[in-house]
Fold these 2 entries.
Entry 1:
Amino acid sequence: MPREAEPSLNEKQFVLQALQENLRLDGRELDQYRPLDLSFGDQYGVADVTLGRTRVLAKATAEVTVPYADRPLDGIFTIATELSPMTSPAFEVNRPTETEVLLSRLLEKTVRRSGALDTESLCLVAGQKCWSVRVDVHVLSHDGNLIDASCLAVVAALRHFRKPDTSMDAGVLTVYTPAEREPVPLSWLHSPFCVTWSFFGDEADIAVLDATWLEEQVRVGSCTISLNKHGEICQIAKLGGTPVDAVALLQCTSVALTKVKEFSDLLDTKLAEDLKRRDKGGFMAELRAENER
Amino acid sequence: MTATTAPEAALGILPRADGSAKYSHAGYTVTGSVNGPIEAQRRDEHAYEAHVDVIVRPAAGVGGTRERHLESILQSSLSQLILVKDFPRSLIQIVLQVENSPENDYVDTKLVQASLNFSIMPALLQTAVLALLSAAVPMRATATATAIAVAQQGDHKKTIIDPSPRDIETAHSVHVLAFTSHDELLLAESEGDFTVRDWDDVYETAKRICCRSARPKEGMAMVLDEDDVGGPDMRHFLQSTMESKVAADLHWK
């Protein structure tokens, strides 16, 4: 496969010099995101995130399996990120690149290890049956800042997802089909989002949000901060060798919180809109099997 | 979920691929991208023709034997269409990402299905053809495809165009046929029990869907269409999609 074309020396200089003058090639502020759009599919658990020219599709699915022997009370939750040649011909099937490994690691740390999904609620029969929830992340188009877009897509897909309803009766487990009972949402604890800062210049003194692919190729380092709207930080990953001033990082974190609140609001409104769209006859409240918390 | 009756398509939706298309029909939604001709790897390189690489990616789970089988069928069909001899030692890469496939509300679906899923073939082939057109890859002809199931109704058999998963479950056999724009049969895959007469019926129905001759321009078209048998007019759909795309692209002129 051909290698991705690197920006020329002139191009790099141009981007850097513009950034030193507080200008970006697409006319954005340094701490401004590209237009962000989120849409849901016809089926439950499909979220499509468009961030400028970056586009990520996430799909959540669930099936009944046997839990891991060392964790009999927990369900299984996996996030699969595989970059296809659709993203760029430089990616090969079944050969993970650095981008892919970093993306899956960060998503894992942000969504799975922060306990966003209550895996204990996925257990059906201890040690015998549990739900296995899987999210597939498909990157359709890559124009920088894959991490933030993918994280939003994963969280949106999981919050939109409904798994089939089940019941236990005298030791017999019944899984109801969608025709029999309305599927139920997952037990979701908090919604973490990623905000990625990119650093430029020899001293890493220019910090930029939502870098495009061209900017990503020029940057000296990046820092991904994952937090929820309450300001609880799930993880911070600082990549790239150039050191960044501690005070600057603190500022980055506080800006990240305002961005995360925006993401959270966007997701909440989109979910509410989607619920309204599905609730055509107004029967949704009666069909629901779950109780109000 | 409601399955769309009329096919829908959008071209050139991915900014970085050479050509791309999103196609949805009968509940299936597929996004396809085409890159090519690009440099081929040593192991894929043919001295006299381009290598056509088809990658089918399921919406959920990793691709398995089923996807490899679909890929091999598509690869051999598309190599017939693309003028591969024009691009020796190069690669034409087609990635087909399934976004949505209709679900059967009456059964619990398992993620890993060993069974074949033929009814997705027309959507995959149609997306590939649209994406290839969008990438302006030289082709001998375009192609249109359809899926048809044969089911028992009372004491005689009936053909179902674009069967739903529930139809397939009850059907005797499922067939996928594709025709080139020269009315030649490109692909014929069948599954299940059927007789030669069944197949002939299926062939006629498929040919009517895929190879309907161009409509008269205005006026009398509506009257003529009424007595036509149901099913979408795939060739006209392909033509009108391309026409509207070209019209939009040449808007500045």
Entry 2:
Amino acid sequence: MTRALASAWTPGLRRAALAGAWLLACSALTTASDAQPSAAPVEAPAAGQGAPPDASPHPLFETLSPPAWLAGRASAILVRPAARDARAEALLDASLVRAALPGLEPSRVRVATSIDVSRDALLRTAREAGHDTALGVELRLEQQRVHLRVRYVDASADPAPDHVTDARAPLDAFLARVVGPAPVLRGTGVRARTMRFDAAGLLGMEIADVDGDGRAELLVARAPHLTAYSILQDGARLRLVRRARASWPGAALRVPHARRSVAWFSQQAGRVLVSRSDYEGDYALALRGDALSFEGVESECPGGLRFADGCAHWVAGRDYFGGALQPLGRRHTRPSGTEEGEEDEGPDEEARARTPRFYARVLHSVRQASGRVLSFDALVTPHGSLVAQVAGRRASVGGQGAALAGADVDADGALDLLTSDYVREGQPDRLRWFRLGADGQLGLVWESPPARGALLHAAAGDLLDTGRPAFVAFEARADGGSRLWVVD
Amino acid sequence: MQLERGTRATAARAGTWRRLACALAVVACATLTGPLPRVQGALPPAYGGVAVLPADGTLARPLPGEAVTPLQAALEVAVYDTLYTPQSNGRLTPLLAVDMPVRLQGELRVRLREGVRVHGGTTLTAAHVVHSLDAARAGRHGWLLAGIGAVRARGPLELGLRTSLSAREVAHRLSAAPLAIVVPQSVPRGTGPFVVDVQPNGHLRLRGARLAARGAPYLREIQIVAPRSSADELRAFELGELHGAFVAARGSQSVRARTFAPVLLIPNRSGGALASAAVRAAVEGALDRARLERVGVVPGAQLADGLPAWRHPGADAARAGGPLRILTSADDPFERRVADALAAQLDARGFAVQVVSSSRAELPERVRGGVWDLRLTTLLAPLPGERALTAAAFAATGQLERARALAERSLRGARDPGSADVAAWILGGRDHGLHHRATLHGVGFDALGRLRLDALYRPREVLGGAAAGKPGGRR
């Protein structure tokens, strides 16, 4: 009997059973999570209860501008749509109350759920419940960006004035619980597009908003100049549009000179700063109209690369950064050396270094579904290892190149990393997409087809203005025809 | 029978087509799966490791302007720095200087970079530079400073040069390797990427200087071992004792310099047999440059493209004989090989040739003594450009006044038509390249044909872990 059952349990039947189980599970999940929106307000728990204690303020709510007449209010009712995942509601309410109703005790705010947040509906709800203020919250997802609209209605006045304020932020794992997740990222869904991009002598690249229009530009530093580009998406096609170009300001060569010239970027006080390994000087970039300008500034990390947790400087006589970070704002002192000390004593001091030295490092704060913000740290060492650390857990994988970029592309609370390959002479290079989870696990998501050139530089950012970060990487080909990769 | 024959023919044709299709498929597969073009790699070169190279001449502590062989010229560049350095695109970049010279109070001022470390630990000052340039003025490359008067220190890091030459011209001159800055200590010291030690066995040990102004080299150490015969060098290379060789070896990779140093045959016109134009014409007629290729001379009669060759009328038909003495440098085996080849050519035309080799120390004295008829020299151009090459040729042939006169006008730019006659035969260019093992990367030459020792590196898979780069670990 058992043998008969086993023989009937063919691979086809197994697949059919798995598919059936999958469908059942999906329908059960849909039923559980997709609460049907109702027009009538439904009472929710009191605001501010149940939020995780270590959740930091969410940037989406911090930009709201409440009306001036809000001061001195006795109580309020906040009407919002139901979250897709009930676990997000406590923190959502706490964040909304803190940002939208400053000065009002959370205990004096009642929360109700409804999709009808029109002025009349809000006024009626507030007066029926005996509150002098009503807030209606609309949340919607456009591409991978969340739009928040809050309508304030003064129920104590007649006619009741109202006030509307808007905010938007890229989708993250917490907001995904509120408005719904981004499509799940799988290796087969990764799209890599290439464009011809002849940029000989490329020193570095970055994606940042330098003109303050809310849309990121691609900044490309080359030996003679720095250029800002926009990438326009026309269907599936991408078009690179040069916005502005500026020559580097005259500056003294660094001592000791760097054998490899590299430019690095950092964000400081809302400005994009750029420095070079071969010339002195830190410059803030500004793009006004079609003019790109360098402005000499006093960096928090003079001559080095600024991170949120400190300042990294190039190891003297090497072409990578030292792992031991210095406190921000302190001027770096060049190591003094005796005759022995200034000469090479070993192939590399990497083995002796307590903290790994790196060609490139990514330090990202990624918001988790719970609302907590976790710091993800990833770097590629001069030995070609990708070393990642999150919440005290470390993972590493060898065989990586010098290019590194990171972003939470699919808003799942994990950091997505793009690296290049550890290439031996004559071998083709390639890009790799890793996912660094909050549990410290590194997983390979995708690998590009072979590239003819060398991939030494990469960057990540919302280049396509969709709220979804994209990776760019530069493939330098010795025989010309270099390429810019856009991977999303 | 007919039918069978026709069927066989059809089958044979079909077989031929099948074979052709198979061959095409194999070719297509080979094309698709064949190696891709070489790429540099997505990791920059690693630091560390040792390379062992042979010398191409007698080894001695390098000093600016003293090189007689291409490798010695490369060693000078590896140990000493100049105030300015030419880029591959011809532009000058300040190296020990901060920026281009500026005219101030009737002189050109050059500011030095702060904190440049001389091998041994002291910091470079203007006084060091003044001393070094004064020493160079008194040496055999003093003509490079023609048109530049006294050099004075105007501060700890500022020089003043009395000259009417333009700032660009002066910067160009100061980029010449013979004017590299030497700081006299217990031994001459430089600021270049390598610190040099002369080993008790005569070998040179170049140690990477981490705080070099030009940047630390990738290799931790380069050992230059004393020259040996071609056969011994080849054997050592094939046994893995050397990472590079100047003789071609089976399976080695090779890189050739794109700039050849001209090889000059200089006649002694002031005395001896070659004071006679008729004898000089006969010598010229005996020269067969094509036959010099086997000893490493790329045939050519001109100093540079567009410059006239030195010619004697009626050289093809001229006949003469008698004893001739060819003077060569004992420090350069290449010269000896060329001299022997020339001796064979001249011998066939009735000259009795004696090849005399003289050491580096004795050679200038012998040249001044005049007991020679022909001498060989490799012209290692100190600066790019035809004018500089012509001036260097004047200096090499003993016409220092003409070199100075040219330098007083300018050493930049194209030829000076009135100064092209250097009164020496150009035999061709010295073929210079390096055959290297697959485990030595970054082999290349600069615009003046000098091996770039600071750009050499070992692949990561050879360097490996912590033990990588230890002298014993040659591969």
